[in-house]
Amino acid sequence: MFIELGHFALILAAVVAVVQTVVPMVGAHKRWPGWMAVAEPAATAQLLLVAFSFAALTYAFVTSDFSLQLVVANSHTDKPMLYKISGVWGNHEGSLLLWVLILTLFGGCVGWFGGNLRPDFRARVLSVQASVSVAFYAFILLTSNPFLRMELPPMNGQDLNPLLQDPGLAFHPPFLYLGYVGLSVSFSFAVAALIEGRVDAAWGRWVRPWTLAAWIFLTIGIALGSWWAYYELGWGGFWFWDPVENASFMPWLIAAALLHSAIVVEKRESLKSWTILLAILAFGFSLIGTFIVRSGVLTSVHAFANDPERGVFILLILAVFLGGALTLYAARAGVMEARGVFGIVSRESALVLNNILLAVACFVVFVGTVWPLVAEMLWDRKLSVGAPFFNAAFTPFIVVLALALPLGAMMPWKRAKLRRTARALLPAALLAVALGALVWAVQSGRSALAPIGLALAVWIIAGSALDLWTRGGRGSIGNRLRRILRLPGSDWGKAVAHAGLGITIFGICAMLAWQTEDIRVAQLDTPFEVAGYEITMTDVSRVKGPNYFSTMAEMEVRRGDKLVATLHPEKRTYPVARMPTTEAAIDNGLFRDIYLVIGDPQDQGGWAVRSYVKPFANWIWLGFIVMGVGGFMSLGDRRYRVAAGARKQRTASPAQVPAE
Amino acid sequence: MSLHLPRALRWVAVLLMLALTVPLAGPAVAVVPSEVLDDPALEARAREISKGLRCLVCRNENIDESNADLAADLRVLVRERLVAGDTDTQVVDFVVDRYGEYVLLRPTTQGANLLLWVAGPLMLLLALLMAGFYLWRRRAAPEPDALSDAESKRLRELLGE
Fold first, then answer.
1. Has this prediction a pTM greater than 0.90?
2. Of the residues A446, A532, B6, B136, which has the maximum number of CB atoms within 10 A of its CB?
3. Strands A579-583 and A549-559
């Protein structure tokens, strides 16, 4: 009964969404306050209905209700509770329900926190937001209904894919979706502004926190996914340039570009039409990502043919929203006249360069991702585009971005002097080159990757620190520090997020350049040495888990006489899903990870064992966390909380930061 | 390739590196112990080639990382060709002849694939041109002339000098 109520609530939410799409839009056009006022309660109602629907599905998973097809296909009574819950979104239908739950959550938030928006603008934003949900309700109810019952319920379920039974992956999709779907708000703001034909500094100020929030969630989601791949897939890779990964990476790149260009709209009333385009594209890439992941078209063209209904439906949604928004853009973009005037060398130009590099980098990822499909359709060529292509074609953009970043970040608005900014950054450049050269000298003869990575990282981090330091003005050190501590959240956020990028760049380069790998047959109680660590396998035993069997080794890692860690790498078999997984054992450290994997027993005795020592591995994700923290600091900036008052001030005196 | 630094500086560097506990790597060994070639140089080449070849039955893995049986067969095949004296290119061509272009993780530049490789640089060029045009139009009016004598005098007065 509860399940049917959940199903009904979803249908009801779809009806409410249709009303919310039509009524406020007409109201905003005709300037009828009553009609416009429908938007906010409708958004709240949608959220409550979908939340109820989601709760009903979760209840079915938690109580192992095997009369539901979805539960049978993705759950089992022996599965731990955490994975019963994460099983709700560990499948196509449930993940789409999570998608609309988050979509309505953001819609509700715009309703509640949008008090400082003009009423007609808010009505339009919520109407566009609801139109997106209408499409997804239709998709779920017509092609991917999670509430379908079984005629003959089986005694037990088929269990969730064991690879997904992992804490990292349990929370990876919700964060990723919060990011993907969060960009729908930027999209709604952009389309509403196009309908109104009006983009001003206030628009930039409204759209930025929403984009920032979505970007932070995407950052966390991508980091979780990459971390999961690192410890779960058994050889410690952290990024594979898989279509599914690229699907989340493209919106992240575009959202990062949008964050930066929205600043120009807000502070200088320039780059308006470009920013609108980015907002449309960011959500467009989220939809493309959904299409890639959900249709399976890129894993194999045949997977798409097996289930064409769903793929075609998402493609239709993509065509309607992206095509519609771009058509509207083509018709209206000319109206948005830029106001600010600025020199060729200026913060504005630097941000344009940032946008070009991020957007073209995203374009490269996009072309590489869809190329196998294009080549098969047009020339009947079956080919692969893998990591070597992306490493070669994508990395140069990030290197140029990293080189230009500190310079651009320190340039004043309107008109800058390159020489003056460069002089201010000289200490950072010298430190970067010195440390890079030092590492190169010490590691003698190995790849230049690590020294270059270190130099870039130091350049960015020291550059960010110098930026804050100069913002402290003149005077005694105490006074400067006091002023630096009082700088607005957005200044701190900028410096911290940029430093995070530097940390990640260093982590990636250091790990790739310096990791040690050892693959051998290990005998019990026979120590072997890997990169200065002495590793001994002391025991191998069979262990029974809640829904799996495991072969677990006990391995002692020593350095000199000191016991560093006792690790338990496992090889698990999940009998219900009939799938083996490797569970690497990792001793995490700030400066190195020791990563052990146990393989098959060998005929002549002993076990195949792979050991890795990965220097600075955790810096990759540390950098992501720091980027996220920077985003939060920026989100906490006072100007977003007092935006209502700031709007009045803005009309009195255009928001401008004096150029030095 | 190392930079020649004074000996003392080198010691400082070594100590710094030890402080950072950066373990320096030994020679790489192969994926499954029985597959390893005795010649480390040949084995290193085999690993490098393996990283560019796709495991045909996996989702998106190279044969060096894959646990699949087919990948193991291909790894052995690559090593056999290397032992027989093939160059890296010959080995890759041999595999491509058998399994088609699909095994190459790094697509060739032949035919339409050239488009794939130049797409990024071309787009960058286009974007830079468009941005350059935009910036040229939006650039500020030329800087005003330096202050006149009267203005300078007034400025000094205001600054209280």
1. no
2. A446
3. unpaired
